[in-house]
Write a structure and sequence with these properties.
526 residues, flat
Length: 526
Amino acid sequence: MDNQLNGLPIQQACESAPKIQEQQVTEEQKEGAARFKVLSVSCFIYALFYTFCLYQNKSGITYPFLIGGTLCFLFYYFKRFGATAAKDRKFLVGAMLLLGILNCTTDSWVLIFFNRKMILLLLGVLILESFHDSISWKLGSWGKALLHLLFGSISQIFKPFEDGYWSHKLQEKKREVTPESKGRKQKILYALLGVGLSIPVLFFIVLLLGSADELFWKMISNVWDVVLSWNLPEFLTNGDIPKSLWMTLCSFMGIYGLLTYSGKRKYIENAVKITTVEWEAVVAIAFLSLFAFVYCLFCGIQIFGLFLGWMTLPEGTTYASYAREGFFQLLLVCLFNIGMVLFFLGFFRKNKWLQALLTLISVCTYIMVASSAYRMLLYIHSYQLTFMRVLVLWALIMIVFVLGGVIRYIWKQEFGLFRYLLMTVVIGYIAFAAVHPDYWIAKYNVNQFVQGEETDLWYLTLNLSTDAAPAVYELLEEELPQKQKTEVIGIMADYRGRIKEQAEEMHIRNWNVSRAYAEWVCKKNL
């Protein structure tokens, strides 16, 4: 019994141990080890590149280079992983590159935020179209696929460590320890041990020699003073190194997890399998009939009361105050209507009466959009422009185009609604971001101020980005009454300080067109 191990002689058990361990490594673990060899180095290099471009730099000149580098990196692995489903990537690639360029031409944090989120959305669509045949996907399928890609990639962020562990284990089995390699390691350890032991003894000897010779001690003291007077670079003392290393690690885990999950096509394919749900259309017709009645009544009041002014207003309510109320509520109702129409199209049986009701609700939504836009324009006429008011107007314009696609989808469900919505919103947003709305807000409000209207100049100089600087500086060129001139000079002094401070913080990585141009305009008007 003493010479037995699980029923085998000791010698046989030792010989069979590696085979038993090898059998314990599953195919998935072997696949992970192989994946680590392919992805680890390149993902780490990409993570360094990502950190260089974006560390404390959300809108610098490096951003378009990051987008270009990311696309090249992904296309290389798309080819390696056999991702050939996407036939036409021109729109997605062009839009991402254009958004990357726009990101370093604006100082508006709102535009920068939406630029980055739009790029992530387009990136997700690009990956899905590259790995999957998405032509037949409906709007709901796209939503599920994007969510699965997002959360699936997050679930794989620790995959590089797991894959690296199994890669090391498999390599360990193949590696043979020779007497020569073992001897080299021992020699290195002995050398390090000798150096470590010599340091305290050497320190004692130096003290003795210094006390024996004054010139030697003076030289040692001077050298020590020079060492103590060294100033460490700022990046070693301000926390940049640990922060940048953390960013590199996170980006490495993120891109590795994204590529790992993207290669597992079956997960997303199972998620987007069409499950036919066709509830009885009569329920939807009964439900929507009440909505259609209320909407028709509301739209009639908008047409005859707001647009034409034929109806009598409640006592104590002026037409101006009536017109300026409710635009945000109407915007919310418009978005609700679009979601409701898509819901009933997706879950109820096709029926002509249902399609007619949905079309009627969509037409009523158009009238609500017009009412909301009219109210907003009246409000702007009285209280001038702000970024939020301009954003609402842009959203209403987008709703007009979105509703057009929804109405077509109501009557022809083979229509590629997701692609239409994606292109419409992306093109509309790029146009919105490209014109730099802060500039036009300042331009309009400055004109109102020059014409004698009450204007919040502090909003222009404190709440708007440096995109507005050229329009704000036009105040100095206008002929104004002395009281207004004094107010403008005081405000512009603070504004110059803000622009100068931002310009001083710029360097080669975070150089930004808007901030640089604002500095030039500032110097020009000194």
